[in-house]
Specification:
The complex is a heterodimer. By secondary structure, chain A is of the alpha/beta class. Chain A folds into two domains: 185 residues, Rossmann fold; 128 residues, 3-Layer(aba) Sandwich (Rossmann fold), CATH 3.40.50.920. Helices cover 35% and strands 20% of the residues of chain A. In chain A, strands 9-11-10-13-14 form a five-stranded mixed β-sheet, sandwiched between helices. A four-stranded mixed β-sheet of chain A has the order 5-7-6-12. Chain A has a three-stranded parallel β-sheet with strand order 3-2-4, sandwiched between helices. Chain B folds into two domains: 324 residues, 3-Layer(aba) Sandwich (Rossmann fold), CATH 3.40.50; 36 residues. By secondary structure, chain B is of the alpha/beta class. The longest helix of chain B has 26 residues. Chain B is globular and about 70 Å long. The chains are: A alpha/beta, B alpha/beta. The interface between A and B is large, with 46 and 42 residues. Chain A: InterPro entries: THDP-binding, Transketo_C/PFOR_II, Transketolase-like_Pyr-bd, Transketolase_C. Chain A: It comes from Halorubrum glutamatedens. Chain A: Its EC number is 1.2.4.-. Chain A: Keywords: Oxidoreductase, Thiamine pyrophosphate.
């Protein structure tokens, strides 16, 4: 067994970037404050000193050019890893993401490929100022040509980041900043990948299948333990990639429970919960025993933080939703 | 060459030939074949343009953006590049792309709605056409940046119009190019009109070239309808990008002052927003007769050679049209190809679903034929 380090999720991001910078000289990390400062969350700490300012690049404050320049670099075969400091600031780069990053391969009929990974911390719960807490992953999952990866553990973070950087296609890599430092896990020191597009079963159970990802994985597991005391056994699936979705794992989990809930902090309308519900309708309708519960953020602008605990699905809301799915009788 | 080109006021355009083809500036060092090549490529672009508009009118091609009037800027600039240099075009630079080796049938196919027209051949250093205005500017900076990081000496020439200089991506791209000193040449085809909005409505800046001041690199205006002047300026900019001096940054912003004789696209009617007098004034600056007069006076061209070039260009465009029109409609499978490097299972399933119905209903049900 290889050596491991006991890392937080954000340290695993840093370790993953370090490993890929070391393994492949075409990898370039770029963004605001990623160099000398080591990133506002310390996700790039020490990388500038080790790899220099040409590979760990402090850029001007301009999201569209950060993404757009990475598009040009990737078209030339480099593997840029641009960072947007908070996902709430991705919108100035949105045209570059959807008009070019997502479709450069398709619109050049395969002449150009964009092996780039756009990283951003996302999600709420850290008492942050306005525009620092949103979950807009559905925007990117809706966009053909992108892959969208959201880890929830340090070990997965390093492996999924490596898989994203090595992938021939562009990846949006969203990091749940609420759990950047929430817990530690043994993370292998050596390079490894965790495959994009595969969900992980975090808890087994036969009563309700619960689908979630990112920072909501922990309160979902917490709720599952509480419900187990009441005799409700949940199967909890951490999706890890929301585009492409692991449809097979989603359907399998539903087939042996017949009941399901989806938990995400993003707003409900147009969110991933609707997509997962549709998959279950299409592929496992006759297994269904209860309405599928969507336990999500509300369809309101993300609040200032005095109210964010009411906005975000908490263990209490998650328990209540799963209980409804478990106890439903026609 | 560099000094004379860059050390001048922003509103003092570099000129070589006047409207009559008389020499008014230093003629760049070009051999007879190169000079004739520029003339021939301008004739090719002009003839192609006329045929393309006509194909659109006959319903044989979709909406098309004409370039007539802009050949001097496109051909002169592209002729100044070395083999490995790249051009990053907007949607009107067909002439520049041909100079770089893009087969004209590719351009026709693209505007006929075939995806394959958007794929430049592997040995042609042309980025895919970018439709969203100025969005290609950061790509040209990123590509050049990659070239610099890898120690290559490829230069990236980015084309865009006067309207693009109002976009954020123009500013952000130029700003990055200055900060990271990338080997990028920003070539602004200032054709006076962004569809119906005149140049004066884009900015209070007296020149577009002068915007370079804000980024710390050289800006220069050139008579964009003088192919020898655009060649000369681009050559100097490319040389500086490849081999910078200590006192100057690699990037250059070139404002090529010119005019589009025709519509913005075949879907546009320019008589709504501009006068015929204005068009006529600019037509007198037409780059093609201008260079022809000069080359005739130098004894490089005569009637016989001009006729031969005309016949050659006509054949080439006719062949390209025939080649493009003989390409069959792509198989629907092409919808799914290249969305990703490998087709994900869900897209395989969507393709299978589409194929099943297509087999059942027949192509006619989809195509309305």
């Amino acid at each position: 067994m290889s050596d491991t380090q006991n890392l937080t999720l954000v340290q695993a991001v840093r370790d993953g970037l370090h490993t890929e910078l070391r393994e492949d000289e075409d990898v370039v990390v770029m963004g605001q404050d990623v160099g000398r400062n080591g990133g506002v969350f310390r996700a790039t700490e020490g990388l500038y000193d080790e790899f220099g300012g040409d590979r760990v690049v402090d850029t001007p404050l301009a999201e569209s050019a950060i993404v757009g320049c990475a598009v040009g670099m990737a078209a030339m075969g480099m593997r840029p890893v641009p960072e947007i400091q908070f996902s709430g600031f991705m919108y100035p780069g949105y045209d570059q993401i959807v008009s070019h990053m997502a479709r450069f391969r398709a619109r050049s009929r395969g002449r150009f490929s964009l092996p780039m990974t756009l990283r951003a911390p996302y999600g709420g719960g850290i008492r942050a100022p306005e525009h620092h807490s949103e979950s807009k992953e559905a925007f990117y999952a809706h966009e053909a040509g992108l892959k969208v990866v959201i880890p929830s553990t340090p070990r997965d973070t390093k492996g999924l980041l490596a898989a994203s950087i090595r992938d021939p296609d562009p990846v949006i890599f969203l990091e749940p900043k609420l759990i950047y430092r929430a817990f530690r896990e043994e993370v292998p020191e050596e390079p490894y990948t965790v495959p994009i597009g595969e969900a992980a079963t975090r808890r087994e159970g036969d009563d309700v299948a619960v689908f979630t990802y990112g920072a909501m994985t922990r309160p979902t597991l917490e709720a599952a333990e509480t419900l187990a005391e009441e005799g409700i056994e949940c199967e909890v699936l951490d999706l890890r990639t929301i585009s492409p979705l692991d449809r097979e794992a989603i359907v399998d989990a539903f087939e042996h429970t017949g009941r399901a809930a989806v938990v995400h902090e993003a707003p409900r309308t147009g969110g991933l919960a609707g997509e997962i519900t549709a998959i279950l309708q299409e592929e496992a309708l006759l297994y269904q025993e209860a309405p599928i519960e969507r336990i999500t953020g509300f369809d309101v602008p993300y609040p200032l933080y005095a109210l964010e605990d009411y906005y975000l699905p908490s263990a209490t809301r998650i328990e209540e939703g799963i209980r409804a799915a478990a106890e439903y009788e026609p | 060459m560099t000094e004379g080109v860059f050390d001048r006021a922003y509103d003092d355009p570099v000129r070589v030939l006047d409207e009559d083809g008389t020499v008014v500036g230093d003629v760049p060092d070009l051999g007879e074949e190169e000079l004739v090549g520029i003339y021939r490529d301008m004739r090719l672009a002009r003839h192609f343009d006329g045929r393309a508009v006509s194909l659109q009118r006959q319903g044989r091609m979709g909406t098309y953006p004409p370039l007539s009037g802009q050949e001097g800027a496109q051909v002169g600039s592209a002729a100044a590049l070395a083999g490995n240099d790249w051009i990053v075009p907007s949607y009107r630079e067909h002439g520049a792309a041909f100079v770089r080796g893009l087969p004209p049938e590719k351009t026709l196919l693209y505007w006929m709605g075939h995806g394959d027209g958007a794929r430049p051949p592997d040995d042609v250093n042309v980025f895919p056409i970018a439709v969203p205005i100025a969005s290609q500017v950061p790509h040209a900076v990123g590509g050049a940046w990659a070239s610099k990081l890898r120690g290559d000496d490829d230069v990236f020439v980015c084309y865009f119009g006067d309207g693009a200089t109002s976009e954020g991506d123009f500013h952000e791209g130029c700003n990055f190019a200055g900060v990271f000193d990338t080997p990028t040449v920003f070539f602004c085809n200032n054709n006076q009109w962004a569809i119906s909005v005149p140049r004066e409505r884009q900015t209070r800046s007296a020149t577009l070239a002068g915007k370079a001041e804000a980024y710390g690199f050289d800006g220069v205006q050139v008579d964009g309808m003088d192919p020898l002047a655009t060649y000369k300026v681009t050559k100097a900019a490319v040389e500086k990008a490849r081999d910078p001096s200590e006192s100057r940054l690699r990037p250059t912003l070139i404002e090529a002052v010119q005019y589009r004789f025709g519509a913005h696209t075949t879907a546009d009617d320019p008589t709504v927003y501009r006068d015929d007098d204005e068009v006529e004034r600019w037509r007198r600056k037409d780059p093609i007769p201008r260079l022809e007069r000069y080359l005739r006076s130098e004894g490089v061209l005569d009637d016989e050679r001009v006729d031969r070039i005309e016949a050659e260009v006509e054949t080439r465009v006719a062949d390209a049209i025939e080649a493009a029109e003989s390409v069959p409609r792509p198989d629907p499978r092409a919808l799914f190809e290249h969305a990703y490097a490998e087709l994900p299972p869900e897209l395989e399933a969507q393709y299978a679903e589409a194929e099943t119905l297509r087999e059942k209903a027949g192509d006619a049900a989809f195509l309305g034929e």
